């Protein structure tokens, strides 16, 4: 079996028109849309994500500001920077670029973001609304993973209701911005859902869980963690991971799935790059547009893209 490749770039081309219209509608209504991203330290993944977000914002004419904090910054300094963005009426959306250093309390940082500006959906209030099935924001990465899966189901001529009701969705990774929201989205589609994390891998049980999956969503942040032996034939594999790996040839991007190995067993698989990433960037902008309406800051329609 050779898996069908789910082309995220092609799906993004279709989604881009929808998001562009949502952003254009803000301009027509005189509403500002300005996204602020925050990174801590000099992580390659965070820098890559910021470049992608900046490029997508420029393409869609969403104003963008980036705040870069030093690796040795204190927790108080991070919270102070977030508070300043919360209080700035010109900022309608805030995104923390992970990872943040382990010494910082990520949960406290997420909880400090104004809920109506939290476009990653990681504030406790927004995660709670998602759990109740009444989301204000859905995590862009988790939403993009299911957008890709839903589109593949539809294009394959499969009844989506029957597909999910007969499927076990296994999510590898339990982060607040991907793994947990993905689990909730699976449950909302009436699928059976299971979550595993690093402890399953450490104790040699990862394959026992993943080989049972009809749909395997991998968001572990571990380069090429999932190999052929972790996947049974016919599984749909959604690779959320984007890992910047350096070797003697320089830096290159790989997923959490060993694409070459898994493609020989899966029914369908997303590549890295070119899979979930392009969709995620657009979903950030989609959430930013929602946040702009929630925070409603009128602006001159001549405002363009701003980066700093």
From TrEMBL:
Tetrahydrofolate dehydrogenase/cyclohydrolase NAD(P)-binding domain: residues covered: 167-293
Family statement: Belongs to the tetrahydrofolate dehydrogenase/cyclohydrolase family.
Name by which UniProt lists this protein: Bifunctional protein FolD
Catalysed transformations (reactions): (6R)-5,10-methylene-5,6,7,8-tetrahydrofolate + NADP(+) = (6R)-5,10-methenyltetrahydrofolate + NADPH; (6R)-5,10-methenyltetrahydrofolate + H2O = (6R)-10-formyltetrahydrofolate + H(+)
Pathway(s) annotated for this protein in UniProt: One-carbon metabolism; tetrahydrofolate interconversion
Keywords recorded for this protein, A-Z: Amino-acid biosynthesis, Histidine biosynthesis, Hydrolase, Methionine biosynthesis, Multifunctional enzyme, NADP, One-carbon metabolism, Oxidoreductase, Purine biosynthesis
Gene3D superfamilies: Leucine Dehydrogenase, chain A, domain 1 (3.40.50.10860), NAD(P)-binding Rossmann-like Domain (3.40.50.720)
Membrane-crossing segments per the record: none
SUPFAM superfamilies: Aminoacid dehydrogenase-like, N-terminal domain (SSF53223), NAD(P)-binding Rossmann-fold domains (SSF51735)
Subunit structure: Homodimer.
Residue stretches making up the Tetrahydrofolate dehydrogenase/cyclohydrolase catalytic domain: 6-120
GO biological process: L-histidine biosynthetic process; methionine biosynthetic process; purine nucleotide biosynthetic process; tetrahydrofolate interconversion
Known role: Catalyzes the oxidation of 5,10-methylenetetrahydrofolate to 5,10-methenyltetrahydrofolate and then the hydrolysis of 5,10-methenyltetrahydrofolate to 10-formyltetrahydrofolate.
A Gene Ontology molecular function term of the record: methenyltetrahydrofolate cyclohydrolase activity
Native source species: Mycolicibacterium moriokaense
GO cellular component terms given for this protein: cytosol
């Amino acid at each position: 079996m050779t898996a069908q490749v789910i082309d995220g770039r092609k799906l993004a081309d279709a989604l881009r028109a929808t998001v562009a219209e949502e952003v254009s509608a803000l301009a027509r209504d005189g509403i500002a849309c300005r996204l602020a991203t925050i990174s801590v330290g000099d992580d390659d993944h965070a820098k890559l994500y910021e470049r992608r977000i900046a490029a997508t914002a420029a393409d869609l004419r969403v104003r963008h500001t980036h705040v870069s904090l030093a690796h040795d910054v204190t927790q108080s300094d991070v919270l102070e920077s977030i508070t300043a963005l919360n209080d700035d009426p010109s900022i309608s959306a805030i995104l923390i670029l992970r990872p943040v250093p382990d010494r910082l309390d990520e949960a406290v940082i997420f909880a400090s973001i104004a809920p109506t500006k939290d476009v990653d959906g990681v504030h406790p209030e927004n995660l709670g609304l998602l759990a109740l099935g009444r989301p204000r924001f859905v995590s862009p990465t988790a939403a993009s993973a299911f957008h890709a899966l839903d589109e593949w189901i539809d294009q394959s001529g499969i009844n989506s209701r029957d597909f999910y009701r007969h499927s076990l969705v296994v999510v590898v990774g339990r982060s607040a911005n991907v793994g947990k929201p993905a689990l909730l989205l699976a449950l909302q589609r009436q699928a059976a859902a299971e979550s595993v994390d690093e402890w399953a891998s450490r104790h040699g049980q990862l394959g026992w869980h993943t080989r049972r999956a009809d749909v395997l969503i991998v968001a572990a942040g571990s380069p090429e963690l999932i190999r052929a032996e972790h996947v049974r034939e016919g599984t749909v594999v959604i690779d959320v991971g984007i890992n910047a790996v350096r070797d003697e040839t320089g830096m290159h991007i790989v997923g959490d799935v060993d694409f070459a190995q898994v493609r020989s067993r899966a029914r369908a698989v997303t590549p890295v790059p070119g899979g979930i990433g392009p969709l995620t960037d657009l979903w950030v902008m989609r959430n930013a547009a929602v946040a702009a309406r929630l925070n409603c800051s009128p602006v001159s329609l001549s405002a363009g893209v701003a980066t700093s």
